[in-house]
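Dear colleague,

Following up on Tuesday's group meeting, I ran the structure prediction for the two-component complex that the binding team flagged. I've pasted the input sequences exactly as they went in, so you can double-check that nothing got truncated or mislabelled along the way. The structure tokens for the whole assembly follow below. Feel free to forward this to whoever is handling the docking comparison.

Inputs:
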Amino acid sequence: MLTAYSIFSFFLPKLISQPHFKPSHNSIIVLQILMPLSKLFNTIILYINPQIQIVCFFLVSLVMVLLEDMHGSMDEEALEERPQPSLSAVFPNELIVEIFSRLSVKPLMKFRCLNNSFKTLISDPDFVQKHLKKSARNPHLPITSFLNSENISVYEVLTFPVSQLLENPSTTTIHYDHFIRLTRNDDGTWFVVGSCNGLICLISIHISRLCLWNPSTRRKSEFFLPSSYNYYFLYSFGYHTLTETYKVVALRIQKEHGSAAGSMVKVFSLGNSSSRNIQCFYVIPLYWFHNFSNNVVYLSGDTINWLAVHNYFGSDF
Amino acid sequence: MILSLDLSTETHTQLLLPQGFDKVPCNPPKLMVLTDCLCFCHDFEETHFIIWKMKDFGVQESWIQLYKISYNNFFPAMEHKRLDLLMLCLSENGDTLLFVLGTNRDTPLFLHDNDDEAFINNSRDNRVKKIGTANKIFWSRTKDYVKSLVSTN
């Protein structure tokens, strides 16, 4: 674990030796204060969660920059020569990337609005991937819940961290965050098809459209499905890394006289909204109507997997 | 067996299930992803459920048994037939497993989700705790999810 202490002890000496870093009298004092502080941090961090450590560090960093700023504005002669102080002028870019990649999406969305360099960094695809890898260590669950609002009962899809359940399994309250709630569409309620890379794929109850939703950034995109997609298909969701394409796979079991006669498999690519039929399955996967798509899983590494048991099609078939 | 569709080539292959799983159980077997690996869960003689993990995807020999949990640990009063189990998450160290129990039902879509309950199994003390929630949650529709900045476009 990269602790605040290691950041302090490792990066501060490095920072001072940076050629572009010309410390003012003020910042040297600040650094002199920060050095012993880092030892104090080492004691405290044993008791606090790593994300808070990073935030603490970040706050100290901001204070440092602000002090620089104050010094600059007081010293008018030096003001002209002094470049506009910013976090990136004080800290090496790698350090900022390292700290940012450990932050949760919410503060990052706020930093995005602070200035252009933060916006560029946070939107950078490499940064997004780096952040995703770190974020994967803190899994969340997207849940469908039932909410009574203004005497109307509606289904809602919300997310919450697994750690919340593990810490206190017997009394968990899921707090409704109206900002991350995906409300009903014109077509009725959304149902979850699958999730990967922090995106949740939902399908409308009338199977007329798909929605790709990132609850953390609150962005969503909708896609219309061709009319050949309907209730009789079992839907699953996956990602093709090389082409960076999200795909929805629809599987239908055709039956004749009560037994399985064949299957139909369609792939809908969300990138260009194209649809095509692919080779059908020779083995009929287990088919559970009542659990929308629980018997099919997407595995990172670009595969979608169905379970099939010889002579066993499930009770609904 | 497992039918695996490769999203790059859009072709499918067949993978074999762990050896020893040969008869059709009364409770539906399930596939799931736990700690980035393909996992398979099935009923064992109506007394336990077993979770297998395929450590190296596509390699039949890499199936390892992760858990064998007695139904008595969390459902002592009920007959163990007709249980619909779904594994949701496994902690990084493998100690804690989050799973959902729904009653196996023959009725179609969305009708009986109210019966869903979620549990946490801790392998250190082999105890199962039920998750209590103030809100009604439809556990069996839950998927894995991480927070990310990934664009939806």
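The radius of gyration of chain B is 16 Å.

Cheers,
M.
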